[in-house]
Amino acid sequence: MSNFLQNQKTIIGMIHVDALPGTPRFNHPLPEIIARAKTEALAYKEAGIDALMIENMHDVPFARHIGPEIVGAMAVIGYEVKNVSGLRCGLQILAGANQEALAAALSAGLDFVRVEGFVFAHVADEGFIDGCAGELLRYRRQIGADDILVLTDIKKKHSAHAITADVDIVETAHATEFFLSDGVIVTGVATGAEASLEELQRVKAAVEIPVLVGSGVTTENVAPYLRVADGLIVGSYFKYEGHWANGVDAARVKAFMARVDELR
User: How much is the pTM?
Assistant: First the structure.
């Protein structure tokens, strides 16, 4: 399997799609949701982003078991975003809907998924998230999706890790690599919160698979992160006023990518 993250210093921009059918905040027809996602994808592309990731973060409160309406919507949105942008594209379906995300990504012709709860277990704000590596990678093989990368959060944000407090983040990264993850993601404690540079350095030194930063990156702090990480997932900072729920601010993305080009 080819891993486009290796030696690339890839910058992935987030598209947080509007609330999807059946969720409490759903109030836009699906064609409008698709159109907005495509507009943001083109804004990212024009600003020089390397890749895109789609997430249903407006579907609050997140459910542990989602319906086919969410999977179908994410597949359609993913297909449209991938085709209008021509960029590498992935998705995540909250909360912990990892097999569903893989199925949607395969249907849409996408390149990767972001997975929570790959190894060990933790308690997230939406409930208990258990390890899924064995089932997920068997499912990937069964549906013929081996070319879709599985990128996995470790010591995930918005979560309590007391039940694995005796398992260091490096040990978690080792387990993730041993269980055949295609890349690990290090985050801060919440959306937009900076990841620990010390933890990032330790994880990077410990594993051979790509290591990404999944929260808190800005133009001001990108240099030390980019020196260590193989890729950066940026959401909040790319939005107007730096808030994840707002639309993509193309000027912010362009300034960020100009700084990244200097560093690369």
Answer: 0.95
- Tell me the one-letter amino acid at 229: A
Q: What are the start-end ranges of the E strands in the chain?
A: 10-16, 51-55, 88-92, 112-115, 121-124, 127-130, 149-153, 159-160, 183-186, 211-213, 231-234
Three-state secondary structure call for residue 238: helix
- The DSSP bridge pattern shows strands 88-92 and 112-115 to be parallel
Which two tokens mark 18? 């509007």
Beta strands 10-16 and 231-234 are: parallel
H helices, E strands: number in the chain: 8, 11
Tell me the per-residue pLDDT of 43-74, one tens digit each, with 9 for 90 and over: 999 999 999 999 999 999 999 899 999 999 99
Q: How far is CA 183 from the centre of its chain?
A: 11
